[in-house]
Amino acid sequence: MRRMSATIIDGKAVAAKVREQVAQEVAAFVTETGRTPGLATVLVGEDAASAVYVGGKQKACAQVGIQGFDHRLPADASRETVLALIDELNADDRVSGILCQLPVPAPLDGVEITNRIDARKDVDGLTIASAGRLALGMPGLVPCTPTGVMLLLEAIGVDPQGREAVVIGRSNLFGKPMAQLLLAANATVTICHSRTHDLAEVSRRADILIAAVGIAHLVQGDWIKPGATVIDVGINRSTSSPPTLTGDVDFAAAAEVASAITPVPGGVGPMTIACLLRNTLTAARMTA
Ligand code: NAP
Question: Does the C-beta of 199 come closer than 6 Å to ligand 1?
Fold first, then answer.
């Protein structure tokens, strides 16, 4: 029998608290301003997984009193049609936040469409303006999943200041903004990627190890520094029926060495939508 010593970080519980807090603050915002925060989602095409994600975001909005605007366009929608919709939403006072569900079908360019979103309404934090503001330490909208990770660390009392933080993955969506947030919190940050030499050795330095790669069980138990906090962002679907979800970390082995670890599912995942709701409220305040 393996002995599990790590605290399992309950992302569902932390996310539920964030949502509750957002619901209270939305109610207060409506009373103060007479305006209801609104989130517009744009889904192009019929990808089943994307439709589930968008449906989940719309449902979550309704639960906290945010008005949802659910825009769907056919897979063959032209570049001009999609950009015109974003322009319309940018100009709509009822819409505080806009997100375009990625990826968009070819030949549409997700980067171009995302960057058409007014930075004050960029609740995914993916525009060049939002990324620049984050890099410069200026207030702005920050991507939801890395924000969620910072809230999880806070919830378990882990202050990144002075700690060695290693982020595996350098995507614009997660790895880079995650590193910026840790840096802003005064951690010593290392970013790893597919060309990193001896990933295991670099990982072993981490007081806070964050994996966002998309390879099941990439991070082994002996990659973990004893007592480290391990945050597993990866979502990997098995081919079994029904499919199961696993993270990028060998959970059972890592839990024997780490002091705290997120499970998959039920760790980082629930924080993403909670932080989207939080960002929508922040966006509403920015344009109030
Ligand atoms: P991505 O854009 O595919 O980036 C993956 C990163 O992993 C890249 O930087 C890549 O390096 C690096 N990588 C690939 N193979 C590697 C290896 N063998 N060793 C070290 N690094 C390696 O993915 P992403 O969007 O950041 O997402 C990463 C994972 O997190 C996915 O499983 C995704 O589903 C999950 N995710 C979950 C949430 C959530 O809400 N829980 C949110 C976002 C993402 P290169 O840059 O060198 O190619």
Answer: yes
C-alpha 212/C-alpha 170 separation (Å) is: 8
pLDDT digit string, tens, across residues 156-207:
999 999 999 999 999 999 999 999 999 999 999 999 999 999 999 999 999 9
Of all protein residues, the one whose alpha carbon is nearest to atom 34 of ligand 1 is 235
Atom from ligand 1 closest to the CA of residue 235 = 32
φ and ψ at residue 188, rounded to 5 degrees: -95, 115
Q: What pLDDT was estimated at residue 240?
A: 87
User: Rounded CA gap, 72 and 78, in Å?
Assistant: 13
How far apart are the CA of 285 and the centre of ligand 1, in A?
Answer: 32
- Would you please indicate which residues are annotated as catalytic (active-site) residues? 57, 101, 124
As a whole number of angstroms, the distance between CA 162 and CA 115 comes to 35
Regions of the chain with pLDDT less than 70: 1-4
In the block, residue with structure tokens 């970080």:
9
| 141 contacts 285 by C-beta, under 8 angstroms | no
pLDDT of residue 22: 98
Query: Environment class of residue 205 by beta-carbon count within 10 Å: exposed (0-12), middle (13-18) or buried (19+)?
Result: middle
Distances (CA, A) of 61 to 19, 93, 163, 244, 272: 10, 17, 36, 27, 13
- Compute the distance from residue 248 Cα to the ligand 1 centre, in Å: 9
**What pTM value is reported for the model?**
0.97
Compute CA distances 4 → 7, 8, 130, 251, 252, whole Å.
9, 10, 40, 10, 7
Chain mean position to CA 270? 9
Q: First-to-last CA distance in the chain?
A: 57
User: Is the minimum distance from the CB of 269 to ligand 1 under 6 angstroms?
Assistant: yes
